TrEMBL record, chains A, B, C, D:
InterPro entries: Adenosylhomocyst_ase-like_sf, Adenosylhomocysteinase-like, Ado_hCys_hydrolase_NAD-bd, NAD(P)-bd_dom_sf, S-Ado-L-homoCys_hydrolase_CS. GO terms for molecular function: hydrolase activity. The lineage of its organism: Eukaryota, Metazoa, Chordata, Craniata, Vertebrata. One of its GO terms (biological process) is S-adenosylmethionine cycle. Belongs to the adenosylhomocysteinase family. Its cofactor is NAD(+). GO terms for cellular component: cytosol. It comes from the Eukaryota. This is Adenosylhomocysteinase like 2b.
Length: 398, 398, 398, 398
């Protein structure tokens, strides 16, 4: 991850995280290791637990432990193990965290529940996931958020890469690896035209599929029209499509009634979040191979269900290193920002990453593409009323 | 403009603008006429002047006058005429405006300068243009804005249509009408990868051009990379390109030094704003036909300059009715919102159009595409924590 | 036209057409002038008439005459003038043509009819158009073709440029100039998926239109499917589309019954050949501006008919110089080939341009794009069994 | 494979292959089983061997044997086994083949060498592969071809699907499965712009890669330009690209000198034919996982070589059933054509599949896409001079 390397290098030996004591709770992977080493090189002490009972790469956990990091995680933890690990991570004699890096909100939740006093020393929370961010906004609404929190999930760079650009590739990859389907000429309906839906639609259209879109939001609906997709209700096309893809973030988007009307061989999968979009609980399935089930009707009609309706791109393709690098760099910068912010800049609220930091994350990744940024002249900066080093856009710019 | 018709129809005889006295200053075109009739049908009284000395369609002005509207404008006004018209529009016995609809800020400026007391009765300003919005933010910063103002320029729907979708088509149209250039295989550099730049790049790439991009903002730069464009500094490619297009909103993006290095026959044009992007003031030109000049070097090298560096899409192509309809509908809704807002909702500040109104504008245009929106079930709305009628997205969503 | 210049240059003073006496019958335009000068520079004597009564550029004809060429043509000839010019062109004392360059077959037809003895000296015919080529094949079938003829219409390079690449641009240009229609979100049906249809479909899809295709040939139909277009019968979509484009080369593709079922405002145009595709003869029309008619139904429904059903790209857009250059270069090379071919290479039949010449035309146009061709090594040429200078593909390769 | 089913059904109980004795030598897969069953249902007797020592699916071979077919093949044959199987297949008492279905020419070669007298009874050869077809043309040139042969490799339908449409998907699939590379923003050079190269370029461009093309044929080169690709020599870009893809059909396209100049991490793979395109014989490699080798330089630079330079799409992705169906249907029709052709239609030469059969293959696959073909009216057919059932295009049409 050259961006984190560049970040270290640009620090030029300074330690912006000197004195920081970070407890983290994320997937334990090779990329996380590089992040922890970077935080450490920038002056922080780190203790870590896993945010998911399955995703820990044991060899990475072992290597980190050998390297002197306190890591509490292994692949295949039980529910009890999971909370025990988190507890061991934060509850240690003679060491109190002053920063939280969370992915999903479980660590934050645990501290709230068990060690609320810890928040007196904590300078801030950096939260990665949709779910964790949602919990923080609820805490904030309820007036219970007692430290500043940084919502890195909604930073522009991360959003575009996690969703639009990453899904544009992973929808193809996930479908090919599981089904070997040919895309050319296939009829596909994509439910939802947010960033994920836009990525899926663009990729499939480019491969020669005929794509229909469903939407609830008229703005996104109009964008789908202008991008060349027929905007329909699911029922209008469900009998004719070869592939159904959900990316709404909603629940029960595809239900039994739809499955009943699909044609034989139709492929159904989910690119949205969690596993709520396709209501497949009570239907009889037959596993044909890893991540692929056939739902078989009495008349022998078969529906091909991928990843049991869970996220196709997490289950059946890989997340490119480049995307993980954007996430890790964003997290590191958010920690630095919160830790070093002057008193009063951040209150007990949820914040988006400052535009300038978001731009900085992007700039650290440009060398990968041998991309050459233009600099404003003094005269131009003055004309635009901008600082030559940014931020270049208003905060709401996407 | 069926969307304005639909707006009227949905009002079902109610008069949300009853009592409103609107002074407007926009281009006087057939579309403006429909807008004025709509405002009138919704209960408003209207007086209008032109925001541009060239753009008035005299037959429209005449027809409006015949129809009983007070319109002060003609094609080819002098500078003095221009301000006389604006003055006649606002300065009338026994009638005081309570709403301003402005495009460029000249009308607002005039009232500030000549009739500041009018603001006591004015409930709000609706401003259309980049320049006008800029002026309003400056007033606001300086603490001099004395009524609420609605920045309709930055509403999502308008931005996407005015910039991304409209420019995707008008860049091709403008270049073809002026030069008959074949796009296939041409090397093109597009300066700036905002919405306008994104539209230009997408269109030219689709037509088989090889497109390079320059950017100052690392986030937009990274997007250009992911969309498949080489990110360069202008100097790196200026010798080899066949077409140079500016869309930065900046000044002096293409200067004499660049022109000197371009190859014979290179086409130079501006899709950004105003006429500042290309510095062509002192160079000897020869008009070869309307909107097309040749800049000729002593060694006979010719550069083809379009529209003297002014906006290509305004000068050399047409703005589709559909785009104008989006603008007019947005303006009408903004007037209704400001006029009917309960005391205290809006302070002396500049506001973006509420998300819900933005979505409403979009929804009024969906029937044109025979597009069928999906409705949330009660259960889904509850799950998402949304009202079934929207707004569906946070305000910062683009 | 730099390709013709390059052709002259590569001849290095040799005169491959020394002794050639060419009678030509083509559009008389600036490009034709360059062709005639090139033929002359390569040693030929030329006499020319126009192949169309409207298309002559009088100033070009005048300049050619001044330059010593015998040109018989003016803009707006009568039918009688037309044949008189052709006759003057061929029937001259003390000069007998030995090569024919024809576009449409009228010149060839005239000589057949009036001066059949001339064919004794004629070494060959180069024919440009679909119609002219069709006539030659009929002569050949009937055993009446008495000299070799070169069908340059079907050379790969010409076909791709005249049809696929040129139409990809001119369909957009023609529609914009006549109707200012916005392409995004529009539903379009394209009748015919040959090269012209492929170009139209690709362009409109790229601009965000939803495109349906009709076809009679299952191979082209399958290609349409793989390229992402719904293959339908015209009746299935005629009620819902915004634009109808014919490019079949057939007759009565759009008939009264279809017009009756189109929706209000539907645009109808022809990119195929001649004016047979849309059967509009007996319908009442109103001219709204040049090339645009409204067909108005008793219930006020309006259909927008472009160019009266004649070729949209010829009537309402321009043919890029680049495409004309390909044509002229192909014609010049075909003349050289036929004139210099050893006895017996060509019999009394219709021939396609030899692959090698077709490749040569292409190679003369590569410098325009700063394109760098790779050369085979001796070892590679041997491995492939090819001559290093081509031809590189079998004759049937497209 | 519904197309073969449809073929059987349309035969309506007739046995166009009654009396045919087919020896086949192809990959032994599930699709081949369906082909053999189809041939059998149409009246043929079949004996089969494998054309490749690795590709036999043992369970398919077993099932065919159980079903009464004589199949001589297993996965992992030795060289000796291979020829023994072929010999057993053809050399059997009391049974003499009268048709050959070959893929690669080994079966044909064996009969020529060992049992030349068999050709007295053989009515024709159907050959599938580039290599096999090449051998047949050489036999023909040498005057040694003693029966008619059908080159099904070059039929339009097969070419487009095997090459253009299939590779458009498999290049992405092969790269993702082996390297998880993100395509967005990557610089890629594609060597060769034939059908395979066109497919690769279109896919990668659509995914946001920046694609350069090398070509030896000026016609293909010009097409690359018009499609928006920079045409370069390999040396011009070799230092900067992230991915190198060969699809030339040539040898030594990427050689040591190129590998030396590539940047660290560059991915190199072959989509052309055989394993000659990349000269990697003598370089030290380290296998990192199946199909992926690292070539490591003394300075630690690594090149990622896929499939040892063999065909990426065969080694690292799957061929869609749809493409296999096209091949099998084409083979079946070619057998029927040769077997039933009246005396004298085919001489001792190599033939392309008649256009009408090619169209028939396509038509059998349209129902998969719910594609509705338009039928000519009598009047239209007459106008075009075509039979209503085709063929619709001249033989050279691609």
């Amino acid at each position: 991850m050259p961006a984190l390397m560049a970040l270290r290098k640009r620090a030029q030996g300074e330690k912006p995280l000197a004195g920081a004591k970070v407890v983290g709770c994320t997937h334990i992977t090779a990329q996380t290791a590089v992040l922890m080493e970077t935080l450490s090189a920038l002056g922080a002490q780190c203790r870590w637990a896993a945010c998911n009972i399955y995703s820990t790469q044991n060899e990475v956990a072992a290597a980190l432990a050998e390297g002197g990091f306190s890591v509490f995680a292994w692949k295949g933890e039980s529910e009890d193990d999971f909370w025990w690990c988190i507890d061991r991570c934060v509850n240690v004699e003679g060491w109190q965290p002053n920063m939280i890096l969370d992915d999903g909100g479980d660590l934050t939740h645990w501290i709230y529940k068990k060690y609320p006093n810890m928040f007196k020393k904590i300078k801030g929370i950096v939260e990665e996931s949709v779910t964790g961010v949602h919990r923080l906004y609820q805490l904030s609404k309820a007036g219970k958020l007692c430290v500043p929190a940084m919502n890195v999930n909604d930073s522009v760079t991360k959003q575009k890469f996690d969703n639009l650009y990453c899904c544009r590739e992973s929808i193809l990859d996930g479908l090919k690896r599981t089904t070997d389907v040919m895309f050319g000429g296939k009829q596909v309906v994509v439910c939802g035209y947010g960033e994920v839906g836009k990525g899926c639609c663009a990729a499939l259209k480019a491969m020669g599929s005929i794509v229909y879109v469903t939407e609830i939001d008229p703005i996104c609906a109009l964008q789908a029209c202008m991008d060349g997709f027929r905007l329909v209700k699911l029922n209008e096309v469900i009998r004719q499509v070869d592939i159904v893809i959900t990316c709404t973030g909603n629940k029960n988007v595809v239900v039994r009634e739809h499955l009943d009307r699909m044609k034989n061989g139709c492929i159904v999968c989910n690119m949205g979040h969690s596993n709520t979009e396709i209501d497949v609980v009570k239907i009889w399935k037959r596993r044909v191979r890893s991540q692929v089930d056939h739902i078989i009707w009495p008349d022998a009609k078969r529906i091909v269900l991928l990843a049991e309706g869970r996220l196709l791109n997490l289950s059946c393709s890989t997340v490119p290193t480049f995307v993980l690098s954007i996430t890790a760099t964003t997290q590191a910068l958010a920690l630095i920002e919160l830790y070093n912010a002057p008193e009063g800049r951040y209150k007990q609220d949820v914040y988006l990453l400052p535009k300038k930091m978001d731009e900085y994350v992007a700039s650290l990744h440009l060398p990968t593409f041998d991309a050459h940024l233009t600099e404003l002249t003094d005269e131009q900066a003055k004309y635009l009323g901008l600082n030559k080093n940014g931020p270049f856009k208003p905060n709401y710019y996407r």
